[in-house]
Amino acid sequence: MKYSWAIDLDIKGFFDNIDHELLLKAVEHYTDKKHILLYVKRWIEVAVELPEGTIKPSEGKGTPQGGVISPMLANIFMDIVFDKWIAKEYPENAIERYADDIIVHCKNIKEALRLLEAIKQRLKDCKLELNREKSKIVYCRRNQKRQPPFKARYQEFDFLGFTFKPRMEKKGGKMRLGFSPAISQKSISRITSELFKMKIHRWVHLPFSRIAYQLNLKIRGWLNYYGVYRKSEMRRLFKTLNQRLYKWVLNKYKRLKKKHWYYSLKHLQGIAESYPNMFEHWKYEGFRP
After folding, report:
1. What contacts 52, CB < 8 A, 6 or more positions away?
2. Please, are residues 83 and 95 in contact by the beta-carbon 8 Å criterion?
3. From CA 260, how far away is CA 123, in angstroms rounded?
4. Which helix (H) or strand (E) holds 101?
5. Which end of the chain has fewer CB atoms at under 10 Å, N or C?
6. Residue 120 CB: number of other CB atoms within 10 A?
7. Which residue has the higher pLDDT, 146 or 100?
8. Are 256 and 267 in contact (CB under 8 A)?
9. pTM of the entire structure?
């Protein structure tokens, strides 16, 4: 909240373009044990089998995505390439980084433009390229009166599954404009896609309590992570889940198939009212069917 501008950085093909020579130098910064360096070298230079069965030899760059140590190697590399560099050269700018997902905070637009150019050059020196289409400078508007002398192109950004943007919030008993996070549309789309793939409406061989048992671990995880900020924004997500459960009721009870859809929905609402703790999201009144 101390900064009015943020740089949302995206590195083009990050995992595919990490230079092996520079990566090994970064690992050597943290350990001099020869067997560790040997295994890291073997790991990054090993050939990769593609889904169609062809073998892709090492090209002197990249770490296999999905590999067990690739995230750790990427973090070691970025710690040297980015974290330590920006802490030394630009100590007044706060940053957050998770692998190659980076947010840099700036006080004004001039500072943001200068820093973005410096970051581009730094990445180029380390044989990486900034994705110009996805990287952007965001105006973190949190005041209704103060505005930049020009229209800011971007006023929101996504980070770790959340969308940060201007929102009205209550502070000190008064409504004011703030800049806060809530579950992103991308996260909602990803989770709803997962729900459709599960085909819950076809689990008619299972009792309702068993379906709740199988889903509750996932639901609890979504609530504990995305529900930390503005839980109400998850309403769209749980509306989709309730619709999947409504479809299950429709397929489970043949007597309801012949009636209007309203009766199936009423049946599901009756279960939610009688057993509000059956599903994790039903514990919150706004998320019930």
Report:
1. none
2. yes
3. 61
4. strand 101-106
5. N
6. 16
7. 100
8. yes
9. 0.83
